[in-house]
Amino acid sequence: MRGFFDRLRELVRDLLASLRMLFVGRTAPALAGASVASPAPAAPAELREGFLDRALRETELLARYPHYAGIVARMVPIETTNVTAMAIGLRRRFDPGSPLSLLVNPAYFEERPEERLPVLLHEIQHVVLGHLHDELLHRVRYPHLVELAMEISADEPIEALLGDHGFSVERFARYGIAPGQSTHERYALLAEAYERGELPADVLGQRPLRDTHRTGDPRCTTLGDLIDARSDGATDRVWARRRPGLGAPSTRAQLDAMKAEIARHLRGERGGGGAASARGVAQPKELGRVLDARAGGERLAWQRIVPRMFPPTRAVFPDARRPNRRFPDRVGEVPGRVRRTPPPSLLVAIDTSASMTVDVLGRIADELERLGRVARIQVVEADAAVHRSYRLRARPRKLVGGGDTDFAPALAEAERHRDLDGVVYFTDGRGPMPEARPRVPMLWVLTHDEPFEAPMGTVIRLPSITRR
């Protein structure tokens, strides 16, 4: 039976060595010693052979620990002087399926060849224990303490190979660290000891790390880079909750109180209001809001709505290409006449008050662009005052407003344009109705499906917002 396992071990070793030579030869010519495009320059024999292959063969790592073969096969060795000895990281940041970058300083191990096996196993333990992939270990309040917990956990299975390495379980037993704990448990215990003042702040710097956690190498993202990118105090409090799930549902009274507080804030100095502010007078605010990109969904059929709401009128235009009825022989000299139906001229008002969200305004901008294909449009941006009035050339990228709502200023602007065929008003309808009525047909386009009583005009609703 012993001979069978010896033979099986030899077969596994030969197979993995073949795979490693193929994998390393394609992905890491710097350490494998061969260039895919051209021969490599002269180098020491051990580097031409490849550091990782030589280390695997001489330390018999895969023969002694065959269950780590899958992790080793994912490693892409990279020669660098950015690390003291070695570092492990992800080739693609935050991607659990990413290949593993193994940054190696061969000069370090030329002087200390006996450290190749323990340091390689240390890096493998970081992968096995999920230190590169577990977001809960990255979103922490004390990054140096989670790195300490990672070092203790990565060294625990290989303590017999390490000697006096400085991160043993026994050394931190006074803080509650015990064998068999997870990295999460150890971080929680170390954080509690640190907050009690028992654990010194520079505990991680008292002993040199076995590997480098922050390399600055653009070819991979190492442990320290992942922790630095995700850690902050707020997320630590959220992720460290003892109870999973949400709290109890808010009561109706609590929701009403929240709404009242929001309303008071919007009517204050830094926000907008609804129909009128607390002083009883609608207040405008000139806040520019950048609109989102175009969204999909159902659209209004403006090619049918416009002719019904604003009946076309035929007009006579001079045309030099048509003969004049009185002077038919003087084509091109005396213009004839042609009757056409020009697109209607519309004033389109957009309610830009605080109650109109950026998503809704972006949806209105989409409709405005489509409406411009069948009509000539004068755009008016207004809340409690008119902020901008301009001829539509393209889809607006930003709208100005953010105050209270008052429909009167926009309708007064419509009276100043004598050549209009109609008025279209995009709004949520939450505002006082003016007493004066426009002299042309009016169309209200509502952004919700709540009841809305308009003393004049016709009401339609945006389908992609009200029908879900």
Protein topology:
Elements: H1 2-27, H2 29-32, H3 45-49, H4 51-59, H5 61-64, H6 69-73, E1 75-79, E2 86-90, E3 100-104, H7 106-111, H8 116-128, H9 135-138, H10 143-155, H11 159-162, H12 183-195, E4 221-222, H13 223-230, H14 233-239, H15 252-266, E5 287-290, H16 302-309, E6 315-319, E7 336-340, E8 345-351, H17 358-371, E9 376-382, E10 386-391, E11 398-401, H18 408-415, E12 422-427, E13 442-446, E14 458-461, H19 463-466
Parallel strand pairs: 1-3, 8-9, 8-12, 12-13, 13-14
Antiparallel strand pairs: 2-3, 2-4, 5-11, 6-7, 9-10
Helix pairs in contact: 8-10, 10-12
Helical fraction equals 25-40%
Q: Count structural domains.
A: 2
What would you call the structural class?
A: alpha/beta
User: Averaged pLDDT, please?
Assistant: 78
Number of strands: 14
Distance between the termini: 68 Å
Low-confidence stretches: 21-49, 268-279
Strand fraction band?
Answer: 5-15%
**What is the rounded Rg?**
36 Å
What is the strand arrangement across the widest sheet?
A: 10-9-8-12-13-14
Number of helices: 19
What does this structure look like?
It is a single chain. This protein is of the alpha/beta class. The chain folds into 2 domains: 2-239, no CATH class; 287-466, Rossmann fold, CATH 3.40.50. It has helices spanning 2-27, 29-32, 45-49, 51-59, 61-64, 69-73, 106-111, 116-128, 135-138, 143-155, 159-162, 183-195, 223-230, 233-239, 252-266, 302-309, 358-371, 408-415, 463-466; strands at residues 75-79, 86-90, 100-104, 221-222, 287-290, 315-319, 336-340, 345-351, 376-382, 386-391, 398-401, 422-427, 442-446, 458-461. It has a 6-stranded mixed beta sheet, with helices on both faces. β9 and β10 (386-391) form a beta hairpin. α8 (116-128) packs across α10 and α10 packs across α12. The longest helix is centred in the N-terminal third of the chain and has 26 residues, at 2-27. The radius of gyration is 36 Å and the shape is elongated. It starts with a helix and ends with a helix. Residues 21-49 and 268-279 have low confidence and may be disordered.
